[in-house]
Design goal:
Largest sheet: none
Radius of gyration: 15 Å
Structural class: mainly alpha
Distance between the termini: 41 Å
Strand content: under 5%
Shape: globular
Number of helices: 7
Length: 128
């Protein structure tokens, strides 16, 4: 990693694993090849090391922010992944529902329905 600080990458790797799960993160990194590895490394350092790497905003709040923004963008694969991470970071089903309501108000009912579908899939897969 010649472009990024190794410490920032390692800090990001720790946070990324804590939120999304070690097996998910490790499988993404293992699947990276010469073409995609630089992005995986940069995203881990920048998003998770820089963006999530301080204590200014609690992980739960960051997860709530992410669900709102990713929902607004309509990136449902990422939304589902971050929904799992949000639950891991302490976001309750009621809070997820409230976030989806806001997405519906500002981004439209069809987008809220997509978020509800993804959230239901995640919540149905949780061990009780």
């Amino acid at each position: 990693m010649s472009v990024f600080d190794e410490d920032l990458f390692l800090k990001g790797l720790e946070q990324r694993k804590a939120t999304l799960g070690a097996s998910y993160v490790e499988s993404n990194l293992e699947a990276a090849d010469e073409f995609t590895r630089p992005f995986q490394e940069a995203m881990t350092a920048w998003c998770w090391g820089f963006g999530w790497g301080d204590d200014v905003i609690a992980p739960k709040v960051r997860s709530m922010m992410n669900l709102s923004m990713i929902g607004a963008l309509g990136k449902m694969h990422e939304w589902e992944i971050h929904c799992r991470g949000a639950i891991k970071n302490g976001v309750s089903p009621e809070e997820i529902r409230a976030i989806i309501h806001v997405i519906g108000i500002y981004c439209g009912v069809p987008q809220a329905l997509e978020c509800f579908r993804a959230a239901k899939k995640v919540m149905d897969g949780l061990e009780v």
